[in-house]
Design goal:
Its main location: secreted. With 527 residues, this protein is mainly beta. The protein contains 1 helix and 37 strands. The chain is 3% helix and 41% strand. The structure holds 2-acetamido-2-deoxy-beta-D-glucopyranose (NAG) (2 copies). The site of one 2-acetamido-2-deoxy-beta-D-glucopyranose has 4 residues, from strand 25.
Length: 527
């Protein structure tokens, strides 16, 4: 008998990839075979992932391991098989973080969840896989975060290449509400992060927050899931369980389902995990948001956040933790109403919410008040490149009411760069009266806010908005607190015939593109 077993195991080992599902262990590491083509190794002293072999090819980079932040340091690492799943628990001694790695038979995935009880230095929490660029050269959104051969021009993370194009890992970002799967890929495989269901419930800054997804360097293709950061953060961090989420391996162009089922985590004793039975939902109607704008309902309190897209005037939330939540209604990304709702486990609460945005007649409007600058000049490019990129259109602009398009007015203005923006419009005798001028901004940097001049009349300085201590527009970010400013312009400011509005910037900041700036949502002269 013993003789036979010996022969069988030698044969199985020689097959390599066809080994069975399960956990094995050496003195220094745990080895997990998913029996789905993926075999990965976890360092027993710090929980680092040190090997990621898919179909026999090693994808783990050689310079640094994969893990949370830059590694959890000395940790208690345990491995076990629970209810047919492999579960590895990494409890950090240095950081207030416990990381879980879970494998399910036949899946080429590492399922994960991250429990944390306090802010982790340097103020961010992220999953970071350091994969081989040689095997996976294409990043999220292609080459926008590919810094190879390029030189840092700003903050050590924003690069310019010899062809005048710019690169930054921030340019790989997508809105959390849309970012359920993102992948890096090569000729043999793709590796994807999957954030299904309520994976973002413990993140911060709402459905339109965007964060780094990948960065391509000479040796490492870095694949991220940012759970929280200080990158244009508008809310306090939340604590508890992040995820569950997964890193999934597949063929080139593989795209795992964004409805990945992680409900089996309820059987694995994961700290902070709240099963569906301990949750409730909210459903209701939305009204008053004009056609053509996405309608989003957003729930938030200090413990959790959720969102739902409303279609045909109806929405249903995801499975939420019990509690009382603020409810925001957005016309695209523009806040048009708020309310509160209380969620109870096992129940569906009803909350109907109507837009409170007034519908005022205007003499003219440029762009739409939708919380996004994409309809203005360079708005189509700003998420993926620096304002100095050679592919950008010129900054500044002259807009003539009646003949110009919204794309003639710049989506951002700087105090020391980018030129000025003017709007020329004509008024009849009847229209020469007092008017309200309104300008919506989506993000401000270094206190930047609009200065307004109508002919020779100058509007008062509205004062610096709440500071967001983070670079914004130069790193592809467009969304912050979203201040809307109004000025009551007296009749004496206007003339019959041709009038000129000049829009500029109050605030200073550093030189050039890091001078005080703001991003424009829309502007209008009300009747
Ligand atoms: C595991 O981590 C320890 C501590 O950082 C390190 O000394 C060791 O070389 C690592 N082992 C492997 C297999 O990477
Ligand atoms: C609604 O928004 C206003 C203005 O931002 C805020 O003061 C108020 O607390 C919010 N109410 C709710 C119910 O969230």
């Amino acid at each position: 008998m013993h003789f036979l077993v010996g022969i069988v195991s030698t044969f199985v080992l020689a097959q390599g990839a066809s080994a069975a599902f399960g956990l094995t262990s050496s003195s220094s590491r745990f080895i997990v075979d998913t029996d789905g083509g993926l075999v990965f190794e976890v360092n027993k002293s710090n929980g680092d992932i040190t090997s990621l072999k898919y179909n026999g090819v090693e994808y783990q980079g050689t310079s640094k391991a994969s893990g949370i932040n830059s590694g959890l340091g000395t940790s208690t690492v345990t491995g076990e098989t629970v209810n047919g799943y492999v579960k590895i628990t990494v409890k950090s001694s240095a950081l207030p973080v416990t990381q879980y790695y879970v494998a399910k038979p036949k899946d080429a995935m590492i399922y994960m969840a991250t429990y944390h009880t306090a802010e982790v230095d340097p103020g961010e929490l992220r999953w970071l896989a350091r994969l081989k660029t040689s095997e996976l050269p294409t990043g999220v959104h292609g080459n926008v975060g590919d810094t190879r051969g390029c030189t840092a021009i700003e903050g050590k993370d924003t690069f310019k290449c010899s062809n005048g194009q710019t690169r930054c890992k921030m340019y790989t970002s997508d809105r959390f509400i849309d970012d359920k799967v993102h992948c890096v890929s090569g000729s043999k495989a793709s590796v994807c992060m999957v954030m299904p269901g309520v994976a973002y419930e413990t993140s911060a800054s709402g459905p339109f927050m965007r964060d780094i997804n990948s960065q391509t360097g000479d040796s490492d293709q870095e694949l991220y899931w940012y759970m929280n950061s200080g990158h244009v953060r508008t809310e306090s961090w939340r604590f508890g369980l992040q995820g569950p989420y997964a890193m999934a391996f597949g063929a080139t162009n593989y795209k795992p389902s964004d409805t990945l089922d992680t409900s089996f985590f309820s059987t694995l004793s994961i700290q902070g995990y709240v099963a569906a039975s301990g949750r409730g939902t909210v459903s209701g109607t939305t009204s008053g948001v004009a056609d053509g704008f996405e309608t989003v309902v957003h729930f938030h309190n200090t413990n959790a956040q959720y969102w739902a897209k409303s279609t045909g005037g109806k929405y249903t939330s995801s499975q939420m933790k019990p509690g009382t939540y603020g409810v925001n209604l957005y016309k695209q990304e523009f806040l048009v109403a708020n309310d509160t709702v209380t969620v109870t486990a096992g129940k569906t609460a009803t909350k109907d919410i109507a837009s409170k945005e007034p519908s005022l007649p205007v003499i003219w409007r440029i762009g739409e008040f939708d919380g996004q600058p994409f309809d203005l000049k360079n708005g189509d490019k700003i998420e993926r490149m620096h304002p100095s990129d050679t592919r950008m259109g010129t900054w500044g602009g002259s807009f003539t009411v009646g003949s110009s398009k919204a794309t003639d007015f710049p989506m951002a203005l700087w105090s020391k760069e980018g030129g000025s923006a003017t709007v020329k419009f004509t008024l009849t005798q009847e229209q020469v009266k007092g008017h309200v001028f309104r300008i919506g901004t989506t993000l401000s940097f270094k206190g930047g806010r609009p200065s307004v001049k109508v002919n020779s009349w100058t509007g008062t300085d509205p004062g610096a908005p709440t500071l967001i201590d983070s670079r914004g527009v130069t790193r592809g970010a467009y969304r912050g607190y979203g201040n809307v400013y109004t000025w009551t312009v007296p009749s004496s400011a206007f003339v019959v015939g041709s009038n000129t509005l000049t829009v500029g910037v109050y605030g200073s900041g550093d030189a050039s593109w890091l001078s005080a700036n703001y991003i424009v949502d829309a502007l209008e002269l009300q009747d």
